[in-house]
Write a structure and sequence with these properties.
It is a single chain. Helices cover about 40% and strands about 10% of the residues. By secondary structure, the chain is α/β, with parallel strands linked by helices. The protein has 2 domains: about 10-80, no CATH class; about 115-275, Nucleotidyltransferase, domain 5. A hairpin with a 5-residue loop joins strand 2 (about 130-140) and strand 3 (about 145-150).
Amino acid sequence: MIEKDHPQLSIRRQSKMLGVNRNRLEKPPGKMTKADTELIGLIDDLHMAYPFFGQRQLRHELRKIGHHVGRSLIRRMMRIMGIEALCPKPSTSKPCPEHKAYPYLLRNVEVTEVDQVWCADITYIPMPRGHCYLVAIMDWHSRAVLAWEVSNTMDTAFCLRALRRAFERTGRKPKIFNTDQGSQFTSPDWVKAIEDQGIKVSMDGKGRWMDNVFIERLWRSVKYEKLRLWSYETVLDVSRLVSEWMDFYNHRRSHQALDGKSPWHLYDPETATQKAA
């Protein structure tokens, strides 16, 4: 939410208005060249199409289209993007000992009603200069997006803002909340916010992107149906475009799997009717 080049507000003033400690702001990333930005866009496209590709496969695909880059550069770009191949990891990849890992509670469970399961995930969005992240909270049964948030830092705070917004907007809570094992969702602050509501915490197995398949499909849709088709320069531009698309997705886009209904019509028919009117 901090804009480094704001024409009127200094970083110190913005920090004070947001109630954050200026000294704890994330160190700004190093300057990226135009070639870096182009490479990140290509990697993002390939990752969306083939989420199971690792550095070797990405290097092979990039060389097919004339980009002869090494694995070290691809590794650095993927680290900046916060993405990795969605496949089982070696046993040497261990979770942070301070963070408790929770079991996956949805195996062989049939989700048949709204608010039975909510899920959350984060995706990376490249920009002409820099990047940002999008988090969304989704109801699993109706596939309605209950809340979302865009940020230029991938921390727990912006996930918690989206979570609070979901509770406030719906006035409801799920029985189970499912996420991956990302550091944002295994952090004590996130887990406490879930458990304080009496909700069971469920976490995907490492690399099991299919455990959260509906929200993975959401990322593909928002990128290919909106963000790839429009130009944007700032986080505010991205927020505006995402807001427009989420409104369309929730209230006007029909789904064959939902008998032609929109996600929000299935989630909350009364407010969906009011929105249509």
